Every structure is written in structure tokens, then in C-alpha cells.
Amino acid sequence: MQEKLLTISIAAFNVEHCIRKALDSIVSAKRIDDIEILIVNDGSEDGTAEIGAEYEKRFPDSIRLISKSNGGHGSTINTGIENAHGKYFRALDADDWVETDNLDGLIERLSDIDVDMILCNYNECIGDKVIFMQDFKEIEDNHKYQFNEIINSIQWMCYHSLIFKVSILKEYKIRLDEHCFYVDNEYAMYPLPYVNSFVFYSKPIYCYRIGVDEQSISATSRMKHIQDSKRVSYHVVRFLNEIESEINKSLYTYLERNVSRICTWHFNSLLYFAPDNEKRKEIAHYDYMIKKKNISVYHGMLQYYKETKSLYYFPMKLIRDSNYRLFNMYGRCRRLVKQIMKVIV
Predict the structure, then answer these.
(1) How would you class 337 by CB atoms within 10 Å of its CB: exposed for 0-12, middle for 13-18, buried for 19 or more?
(2) Span between the terminal Cα atoms of the chain, in Å
(3) Which member of 111, 187, 209, 345 has the lowest number of beta carbons within 10 Å of its beta carbon?
């Protein structure tokens, strides 16, 4: 297999119903010879591996099927990094896809640059319809930046918008939690201390499918995987503490703000449960642990809600100010409002 400009690692678990769309969006690129596609079959029990083998046979110079025991989303990315031979690395979930024409434009650009990271716009889609495009309007297209120049003008660079240089991921042994949901937050943070330069590509590459009931961001899934969101939040707080003395203030401020955001996600998820004394104790203990681990993140959680004008600002403030005594009352009021809204609708 010739040297490639871009490795696209596809996380594939029981995705026989959708992986062809993801693969076809890549193999249709004019510069497919510059792309390495790793289909990381994560212990699928359907026809995912067979479809992967079919595409590997059709495109032997570009596609490799890697089958492994089930380890979760993080393990597919870890495996992709370990096996990547391209210059740059892009993770893709098999139920999503890429904009083929824009991918061609990106490959053209990658042949002329040498940076640590590429930041891209991305689409959010329901079905095939684009309903929102994440646009980093404050950054100039095709301009090479030093990371510290621009970091604090960006609110959040997520999994769908990031492409990293493979050598950085390998050299610094970037690894995500395995058997765990929500590790996309780790992927979007762990490599950043080693990024010095980046460029922005304004055309959206990643098409992120939303509005699906089984998605990890749905309320049902958040409740089901509540221990995973806690685990990831504790790990990113630990990461922040460990690298504080090694990074500059601008990057630390960015990371601290977004670690706070990740911790609010778990706090929010706890509010979905039926209120009782056990859940009240759980949310109080979680808040106590965050405060103990990093008090700036603890205060940053409420600040994040305030800055984003979130509806959760006052519930969090109320619950904290009451020493969590009002947690059950808030939960009962929330559930009552939801029942009333269902009747009205």
C-alpha cells in the first residue's frame, strides 16, 4: 500500500445497515489513492465484517479490514491510530459519512501543507438533509496559525471537526478509554498539548447523523451509560490537572472551560432520573468530588451555564445553594412539566 496523505479510521459495530453509505462517500473521491481507510470491526455480530471484506477486495490499495473483539468506540480509535500509515488521521463513525467533493479539496490541500492539526467545519444531518453547519467564523480559511494565536477565540473543537497528524498521536501515545461511551471528548482534548500549528478548512467534511433514538446523546442512552459519563469527566479533570504545569495559559483556559462543560453534561444526565434520596446523594457526591479534584472546574460548571444562557443555570445554582436539599423538588417539578407538555401536545 503506497504512502497516504490521510487515514480515515471507521468505527464499525453492527453497522451492516449503514456502513456502505460511509464507505461509498470516501471511495468515490477522485484522490482515493491518497486515502487509507481502516474499517475497524469491533466484534460485530451482523454482516459488518463481510461488507468490509467486500470493499477491501474492491479497493486493496486503500482499504484494510481490521477485526477485533468488542472494546467500544475508544478501542476502535486506539486501534486505528496503532495501524495508521497516513500522514494525517480522521476518525469516522460508520453511521456517519463525508462530503465527497469537499474531501477531494481537503486532500488537495494536505499535499501542500505540514501542520499538526486541521480544523474543519462539519454538518449535522437528519436523514440526508443538512440542518446545521458548524462554522468556525472567527478563523480564516487556509491560513496557517500557531495554535496559541487563536485558541481562546474558539469555544469548542469537537470530534467531528478534528484531523490530527498521525506522528503526534503515535509519539505521545494518545489513547482513549475502552468499553466506555463519550470518549469523543477525550479525543478532542488529549492531543492538544502537542499541537503547535494548524490550518482551517472551511468546507464541511464530516456529516454527523443526529435525531436517532439509540444515539449516545439521547436521554435514554445518557441514563443507561451514566457511569461512563462520570468516568470520562473524572478522567478529563485528571488530564487537566496533570498537564497544567506543562502548557501555556491560553490552552489551559480553553481546556478548563471545556472540562467544565463535560462535567455539566454528567450533572445534567443525573437530572434525567426520577428524583429520590439516592440520586440526591449521588449528585451531591459528584459535585463534591469535582470540587475536590479541581475547584476551578467546579465553579466553571456554573459559569459555563451562565455564558451559554443555559436553562440549567438556575437549577444548578438552586440545587447547590440549598446544599442539594432541593434536588428532589426540582426533579418532581421537571417531571410534572413534562407530563403537562405531553397532554398539551
Answers:
(1) exposed
(2) 57
(3) 345
C-alpha 157/C-alpha 159 separation (Å) is: 7
> 314 CB contacts (<8 Å, ≥6 apart)?
none
pLDDT digit of tens for each residue in the chain (345 aa)?
A: 568 999 999 999 999 999 999 999 999 999 999 999 999 999 999 999 999 999 999 999 999 999 999 999 999 999 999 999 999 999 999 999 999 999 999 999 999 899 999 999 999 998 888 888 877 878 889 889 998 888 888 888 999 999 999 999 999 999 999 999 999 999 999 999 999 999 999 999 999 998 765 556 678 889 999 999 999 999 999 999 999 999 999 999 999 999 999 999 999 999 888 888 999 999 999 999 999 999 999 999 999 999 999 988 999 999 999 999 998 888 788 766 666 655 554
Alpha carbons 169 and 285: distance in angstroms, whole number: 34
The whole-angstrom separation of Cα 21 and Cα 207 is 11
User: How far is 99 from 237, CA to CA, in rounded Å?
Assistant: 34
The per-residue b/e assignment along 224-258, b for 16 or more CB within 10 angstroms, e otherwise, is: ebbebbbbbbbbbbebbeebeeebeeebbebbbbb
Nearest C-alpha neighbor of 105 from the set 203, 34, 25, 197: 203
pTM of the model: 0.92
**Within the chain, where are the H helices?**
19-27, 48-58, 73-83, 100-110, 147-150, 166-171, 184-187, 219-224, 226-243, 249-271, 277-293, 295-307, 313-321, 327-344
Concatenate the DSSP letters of all residues of 112-146 into one string: T---SEEEEEEEEEETTEEEEEE--TTS-TT-EEE
CA-based R_g, the chain, Å: 21
